[in-house]
């Protein structure tokens, strides 16, 4: 599989890269890194094998993977392969293995469910209505996530309060509505701080971030954003919605 997206905005040359555009080491970042590491350590001690990092392979989750790996915390790392991801996203899996010696467990949708959905609604069903888009997300994301979290008592996410208004009250540790703890260790980090960390520790990241895609999901549902747009404006841009797929919806 090619490791270069066929999307026109992804093929366009970047004006610099995300590190050069965004990275800024703030006076509080050292303390935030220490606090994030403490949250991860405490969660690992409390939950043991019941803890998993649910990684989107976006830059925030890559930072968390780096924090876990550099401190050798025994935390499992998993991701969802929806069958619609950009090749640049999937290319991070062998890079994580090579860089950190950590294997990412991949959860995929049930093939027959995808086939039946596409046969009935079409491969472009997500564009037809919010209901069909959410149904697609349900098959490709929510069902595999359920398998990822089965038997787990806690999961780690890369959510940050700055990402959108809907995420402005993200807690470091909260109930996920299903009896598990949901831990977001870098919830208070800024975009500039995320990239400053990436720069300092040479964290691998998706090159689509260099193409003005701060939030990267499935290829048909992700576009670059314009200056001044919300971080998640490039997700389901044709909808007037809260830009969530259900993985992090409030109960």
What does this structure look like?
- The longest helix is centred in the middle third of the chain and has 20 residues, at 130-149.
- Helix content is 38%, strand content 9%.
- It has a single domain (8-109, 146-221), classed as HUPs (Rossmann fold), CATH 3.40.50.
- It has a 6-stranded mixed sheet with strand order 3-2-1-4-6-5.
- The protein has 251 residues and is α/β, with parallel strands linked by helices.
Search tags:
single chain; 251 residues; alpha/beta; Rossmann fold; six-stranded mixed β-sheet; 6 strands; globular
Largest sheet: 6 strands, mixed
Give the terminus-to-terminus CA distance. Answer: 38 Å
Tell me the CATH superfamily.
Answer: HUPs
Helicity range: 25-40%
In DSSP terms (H or I, runs of 4 or more residues), the helix count works out at 9
Shape, per Cα inertia axes: globular
Query: What is the CATH topology?
Result: Rossmann fold
Q: What is the N-to-C order of secondary-structure elements (H for helix, E for strand)? A: HHHEHEHHEHHEEEH
Look at the helices and sheets and give the structural class.
alpha/beta
Radius of gyration: 17 Å
Low-confidence sequence ranges: 6-14
Write the layout of secondary structure elements.
Elements: H1 8-11, H2 18-22, H3 29-47, E1 51-55, H4 59-70, E2 76-80, H5 87-90, H6 92-100, E3 105-107, H7 111-121, H8 130-149, E4 154-156, E5 173-175, E6 181-183, H9 191-201
Parallel strand pairs: 1-2, 1-4, 2-3, 4-6
Antiparallel strand pairs: 5-6
How would you summarize what this structure contains?
The chain has helices spanning 8-11, 18-22, 29-47, 59-70, 87-90, 92-100, 111-121, 130-149, 191-201; strands at residues 51-55, 76-80, 105-107, 154-156, 173-175, 181-183.
């Amino acid at each position: 599989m090619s490791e270069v997206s066929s999307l026109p905005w992804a093929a366009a040359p970047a004006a610099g890269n995300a590190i050069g555009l965004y990275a800024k080491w703030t006076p509080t970042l050292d303390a935030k890194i220490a606090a994030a590491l403490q949250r991860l350590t405490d969660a690992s001690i409390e939950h043991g094998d019941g803890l998993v990092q649910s990684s989107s392979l976006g830059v925030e989750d890559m930072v968390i993977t780096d924090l876990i790996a550099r401190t050798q915390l025994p935390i499992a790392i998993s991701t969802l392969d929806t069958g619609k991801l950009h090749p640049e996203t999937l290319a991070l899996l062998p890079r994580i293995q090579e860089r950190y010696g950590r294997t990412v467990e991949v959860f995929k949708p049930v093939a027959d469910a995808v086939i039946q959905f596409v046969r009935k609604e079409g491969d472009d069903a997500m564009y037809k209505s919010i209901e069909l888009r959410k149904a697609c997300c349900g098959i490709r994301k929510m069902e595999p996530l359920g398998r990822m979290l089965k038997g787990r008592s806690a999961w780690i996410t890369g959510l940050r309060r700055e990402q959108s208004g809907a995420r402005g009250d993200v807690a470091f540790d909260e109930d996920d509505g299903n009896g598990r703890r949901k831990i977001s260790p870098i919830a208070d980090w800024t975009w500039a701080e995320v990239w400053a960390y990436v720069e300092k520790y040479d964290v691998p990241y998706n090159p689509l971030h260099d193409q003005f895609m701060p939030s990267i999901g499935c290829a048909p549902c992700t576009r670059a954003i314009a200056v001044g747009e919300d971080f998640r404006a490039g997700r389901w841009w044709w909808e007037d919605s809260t830009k969530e797929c259900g993985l992090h919806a409030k109960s």
